[in-house]
Amino acid sequence: MKTSSFLRNVEMLAVAACAAILIVSPRPAQAALVPVTTGLVLQLDASDIDADGQPDISQGVPPFINGQTIPQWRHLSGNNHATNFVNAVLPLYVTAQFHGNPVVRFDGVNDRLEFPAVTAQTIIILQRARTGTPLSSVKGLDELIGNAADQGIRRDQLTPSRGWHGLPGNVNNGDFTFPGGSQFFVDGVATDADAPDTFRTISAIRNGSTVSVTRLGSYTGNTRQYNADYAEVLVYNRALTTQERQDVETYLATKWATTIEGTPVAPLITTQPTGGTVAETVPFSFIVGTPNAAATYQWRRNGTAIPGATSASYSLNAAMASDAGTYTVVLAHPSNPALSVTSNPAILIVTPPRTEAVLVPVTTGLVLQFDASDVDADGTPDISQGVPPFSNGQTIPQWRDLSGNNNHATNFVSGVLPLYVTAQFHGNPVVRFDGVNDRLEFPSVSAQTIIILQRARSGPGLSGLDELIGNASDQGIRRDGGTGAIGWRGLPGNVNGGDFTSPGGSQFFVDGVGTDADAPDTFRTISAIRNGGTLSVARLGSYTGEARQYNGDYAEVLVYNRALTTPERQEVEAYLTDKWGTTILKVPDTLVITAVSYDANNDRLTLKWDSSFGEAYTVENSQDLVDWDNLTTGIPSGGITTTV
């Protein structure tokens, strides 16, 4: 067994050049989260105006184009969406206004949005009052947020030196902070002075009672219109503490690269870059996520700045051995480079391409082997050949059997042939079936164990049940394309008489785990063992004609005429893992490495992990992730210290 079976949540642990390398599975990208959510009744964010959880600036096609009117600004934490369906009074979506981020612009003439009444005691808004002439005729009071009774946060456009109606002496009965003891802050400072045309964070805490607010940009009709750009609006139904207010102000300053109490803050990283293992000549990309559109970037490899690597991503078009190393990226504030943050390290391992075939470790009962990396079965990986047997996108009339049994898969109807697609999986080719009419047929073989490395693809299919491998009687391994939550028809409760594992006591695994759940668009090793007897299989991609077409990429197909034992199945899965650079998950989900340290003076490596499982493990090391040497075997759970 290889070290690939050692971890559950860690892709690979290797000891190379006397260093421990830990690669953690990537986290999904996410938006910056508000640090205080208790009592949060309204959040409107111009950088995520459709409230889908993804900053609009990171989307290829944002929800609105520059200058387009906005009929709805969606609430990020509920259903209090701000709307207005009168076209003439809609604000605009204006891009690249605040460090590259969009804003919602109200014209100061008649623009307004309304939302369901929410009870407000704390309001924090990042906005920019704009120089202009509003229609307001009563003292030039322009409503940032308020209600139909003319109560809210108001800016005195006629007295720009004062700015806001916020502090005692500058408020009247209609102002949000009118009650004694209320608080008002501009960029974290207790003041209501604010000149226009600068983005400011306005924080108001009403003492003793709440006020219902229902609208942005005016209090009613064309009265008290506010001429401004809104970046983010946060409303709470309670009074925040000083620390909570400061936390929210810091969140806005960090997210939008503005200032708090007059001081800029460092950018925020919301998605750390992740490393991986890639074969030479294969592309690889590092990506960092941040809501700070204006942050500057500098990628580093092994601590040295990479010339020209100054964007949110860094891509290698064809990884080489010299590209291996530890990558980080430094994000800095656009106006103060000293305010910077460095990402977590992301480690890239580059392996040499295979130049010789890797042999299946279990051959007894092997009746069929299709390998997309050696589609002509000449014993030499196609990727190492100067002229591969097919070019990218070419149809394949025959996929030759490597088992020695001459069970070649063929189809001589040109319109239904799958494609040979290069550089799909760690640089290796795949055989792609289109989910419409592609299929290949081979001489009928008796199957009791089937193990296939494949990737189901999102897209067309003529039925919910898509046949990975089977026969003309609609029996085989089938993926439920119409029920993505299930994935495969594999385990009891999800199978019927036509499924390969329908007999009681049969087994089904996805990446070595007893499950049939599997989302599309990820390479998975599917292992199925039929209990009690064999089933004849004779085709890939459909069971007959154009029925149950499979939309997916095949990497390798192995069929045995007997039931493999658990160690044999794991041996074959580990073979696929080592050969194709995928993962097999074999140990408890909660196994976690708790410490990795290296003593350079004594050349000693220490690993520690969760000791609650009572199992023994084999630890191996490798210089190239192909050839492995045992460090020690049969060690108790908990940890190891060894010479490397």
Summarize the structure.
The protein has 644 residues and is mainly β. 5% of the residues lie in helices and 38% in strands.
Provide structural commentary.
This protein is mainly beta and 644 residues long. Helix content is 5%, strand content 38%. The strands form twelve sheets. Strands 3, 4, 7, 8, 10, 13, 14 and 16 form an eight-stranded antiparallel beta sheet that branches. Strands 27, 28, 31, 32, 34, 37, 38 and 40 form an eight-stranded antiparallel beta sheet that branches. Strands 19, 21, 22, 24, 25 and 26 form a six-stranded mixed beta sheet that branches. The chain starts with 9 loop residues before the first strand and ends with a strand. The model is unreliable at 1-30, 135-139, 585-592 and 611-615 (pLDDT under 50).
Secondary structure layout plus pairing:
Blueprint: E1 10-16, E2 19-24, E3 40-45, E4 68-69, E5 72-73, E6 82-83, E7 92-98, E8 101-107, E9 113-120, E10 122-129, E11 141-146, E12 152-156, E13 183-186, E14 200-205, E15 211-216, E16 227-236, H1 242-256, E17 259-260, E18 263-264, E19 276-279, E20 284-287, E21 296-301, E22 304-305, E23 313-316, E24 325-332, E25 340-342, E26 346-351, E27 366-371, E28 394-395, E29 398-399, E30 409-410, E31 419-425, E32 428-434, E33 440-447, E34 449-456, E35 465-470, E36 476-480, E37 507-510, E38 524-529, E39 535-540, E40 551-560, H2 566-580, E41 593-599, E42 604-609, E43 616-621, E44 629-636, E45 639-643
Parallel strand pairs: 19-26
Antiparallel strand pairs: 1-2, 3-16, 4-7, 5-6, 7-8, 8-16, 9-15, 10-14, 10-16, 11-12, 11-15, 13-14, 17-18, 20-23, 21-22, 21-24, 24-25, 24-26, 27-40, 28-31, 29-30, 31-32, 32-40, 33-39, 34-38, 34-40, 35-36, 35-39, 37-38, 41-42, 42-45, 43-44
